[in-house]
Amino acid sequence: MFFIFVFFTTKFNDKMEKAEMHFTKRAEKYNHSSNWVEDQNLIHKIYELADTNRDSIVLDIATGTGLIAHEFYGKVKKICGLDISHEMAKYAENCMNEFIFGAVEKMPFEDNTFDACVCRQGLQFAELDKAIPEIHRVLKPGGVTVLCHLTAYNETDKELTFQIQELRNPARRNYFMPNDISDALKKQGFTQVENTNYITDESVEKWINNGAIASERMDKIRKLYRLSDNKFKEIHNVRFTENDILDAMLLVLCKAKK
Question: Cβ(180)–Cβ(129) under 8 Å?
Fold first, then answer.
């Protein structure tokens, strides 16, 4: 199997340029920038939910450094990665068959191309009303999508969770509640939509020291945790150590069929 780069002309809007710049800064440290990035149990869970086999053609959206794609590599007929970041692609060699530079809002694929489309932590940077129809379009009838993203737990922690997420990643476009992705998939006509919750215990110091945000933003995040109310601390099981803050963050894995 060969690793091929495929380039398509993509016109970036301001938000996409901001995201591309953000991940250019993060690329070198990305693979160790949070616990969920490295979590092999989470990666394998996405693989299992995708229901692929040796004959499957799979797309990993916002593939980045290829950690999700690598789980499929050699187990399926073909695994393609899609991303807008050339810098992240430098770290994705030997993780997939093909790396395609392009945006999820306008993917350079024919209709009904893939047996499965997966994405971990990519749609917060996308125009969701364009991305979900594109995922539906490129999937074969009966194809599966698995979309995994950090969310708030509920209305109680929503405001502070989103404040922290915005400070950590100013390129973010969307802030998700647990049912936002599943509701968007149902609206597009996907069926058998199911959510699976996954708690990831995160070192805040590791999570914020990603190489892409200024120290002032990191200080603001630390301060928000210290000043958070007891309800937020309880929901997120926040723990303070001598040199760190621990937060039990919620990831929702949404599986659906075309």
Answer: no
pLDDT digits (tens, 9 = 90+) for 134-175: 999 999 999 999 999 999 999 999 999 999 999 998 889 999
Q: What distance in Å separates the CA atoms of residue 232 and residue 161, rounded to the nearest whole number?
A: 9
Residue with tokens 């979590």: 39
| Bridge partners (DSSP) listed for residue 69 | none
Lookup result for tokens 């980045």: 64
pTM of the full predicted structure?
0.94
Phi, psi dihedrals of residue 44, rounded to the nearest 5°:
-70, -30
Structural domains in the chain, CATH included, are 4-152+171-200+250-257 (3.40.50.150)
Contacting residues for 159 by C-beta, under 8 A, at least 6 apart: none
Q: Nearest 5°: phi and psi at 114?
A: -110, 145
DSSP track, 7-68: E------HHHHHHHHHHHHHGGGGGGSSHHHH-HHHHHHHHHHTT--TT-EEEEET-TTSHH
C-alpha span between 68 and 49 (Å, rounded): 13
